[in-house]
Here is the input.
Amino acid sequence: MYRLLIVDDEYHIREGLKRMVAQSGLSIKVSAMAGDGETALRLYAERRPDMILLDIHLPDASGLEVARAIREKDLHTPLLFLTGYESVPYIRQALSLQATDYLLKPVTREEFEAALRRAGERIAESRRGGEEAIYRQRSSEPWYREHLLLDLLQQRRPAEAVIGEMERLNFFGESGSLPYIVLCCELEEPSQEAAASAGELHGGKNHSGSIFTGLTWSDITAEAGVKTYGAAVSRNRRIVLLSAASSRAVERTAQHIRQAVQQRLSQAVSIGISRPVQRLEQLPEAYEEAVLAAEHRAWVGYNQIIPFASIQTHALDSSGLLEKELLMITELRAGNDAAVHAILQEWSLQLAGLPVKQVKMILTQLMLLVMRVVHSDASVRQEAAQEQDPLLELSRLRHGPEMIDYVFRYFIRMARHIRAAREQGIPRKFQQARQWIREHLQEDGGLNSLAAYMNMSPKYLSVRFKQVTGESFADYQTRARFERARELLLDPKRKVAEVAELVGFADTNYFSIAFKKHTGLTPTEFRKTFL
Here is the structure.
C-alpha cells in the first residue's frame, strides 16, 4: 500500500481527491493532507510519503518551491503537480524536478487514476532495483534501527517488509515479546538555551536536530527496569517502544523519562501512552494513539502523562460533531456570517445533548481555531483586540447554554469583522452595489439592472466595480451565489431545486455541475459531507 500526501489550499478539492483515491481500487491511501507549503514540508518530514500531489499555487509558497525543497533531500519520491493553468514555464520547471505528471484542474477521475498508477509503477521499479543495495549500506549504520522502527510505526513502507527486515536483524533480541506499548514524548517549544545545552551534551553535533539527542536513553529506561527501543520523529518529539512491560512498568518508565528531561534539559515534556497491542502489525495504530494522547496536552495541561484510554471517550463522542469545523472556518474566512450562523444553529442542537464538561472542551477547541483565523489577519486582529479574552471569558462560564451562546455570538462578531475588513476602503456606493447583488441573485438582469439601480452606464459600472472592489461584477456575483448556495444547502428542509432557483439557476442540473466545479462537490455530496 503506497501512501499519498495531497497538498492543495482548497479544502473541498483535497476532500474530493481523497475520495477519488479511496474509490479507485488502487493500492494507494491518503496518509496526510496539507493546505499550505509549510505544513506540506512538515508532513513530508514526519510521514515520508511514497508519492506527493502538489498544487502549484499555495497561499504561502509555490508548489514548485515546495518540490525543490523536497528534491534537495529526496530525488526519488514521485511528484505529481496539479494546477488550473496550462503554462509552459510551469511545465518546464516541473520536468526539471523530475515530475511524474502535470495535471490540469478540473482533473477527471481517469486522468487522476492513470497518474497514480504511473507513480506506483515508478516506485515499484525503483524499489526492485535498489532495495538490496540500500539494505546492505544502511543496515550497518547505527541510526538505521531508528529509521526501521519509524518505517513500521508511520507506515512508510509495507509492514510485512519492515517486520521481515527486523527479524533478519534480530531487532528485538531475546527480550522482545508482546504486548507492545508506544510512548510519544512531546517537548514544549524549547528555549534557545535548552537547545544549545542539548547540543553541548551531544558534543555540539546534534545530527538528528532533536533536543532529545542530549539524553542517554538506555540509562533512563534501565532505571525503570524495562527494555525500550526509541526513535526521534522530529526536533521536539521522540517515540519510545516498550515490549513485555506491565502497566506499572510503563508508568514507571514514563515517570523516569519526564524526570530526566526536567533535570537534564530543564524542559517540560508531555507523554502519551498507547493501549497495549499483541502484534507488530498493530504498532502503527498504537503509534497514532500515543501521538493523539500527547497532543491532548492542550486540554489536560503540559508536563502530564496521558494514557490514550483516558481521552478515548471524548474523541469518539466529539468526532461527529466536529465534521463541519473546516467548512465553518472556510465561511468565516470569507466573512460569510449568514453561513456561519446556519452551521452554528445546527451545532447548538448537537451540543445541547452533551455533558457540560464535554461541551466546554469542544467549544474551547472551536474557539482556538477561530482565534487562529482572527489573529492571522492584521486588520481583523485590531478589532478583536478590543474584545475581552474569549478563552478567559469561556473558562468563567459554568452552564452549557450560556457557553454556547457566548461562543457563538463571538463567532458571528468575528465573521462580521472579517467582512467589514474586506470592505474597508470600498466607497459606500459600491458597498451598496455588492449588497444589491446579494439581494438579487434570483434576477436575470445582472449588470444592466445594477447599472439602472446605481444610475450609471453598464460599461462604466463594470470598469469601476473592478477598480474599486478588486473583482469583476461576474466574479463577485458568482462568488455570492455559491456562498448563498452553501448556506441554503445546510438547511435539510430545502430541496436542491429550490436552492438552485433562489441563487439564480433555472436548470437544476446546470446548477449541480456549476456547484461541483466551484466547490469540488455536487450539492448532494456537499450535504452528505456536512449534514
Summary: The longest strand covers residues 180-187.
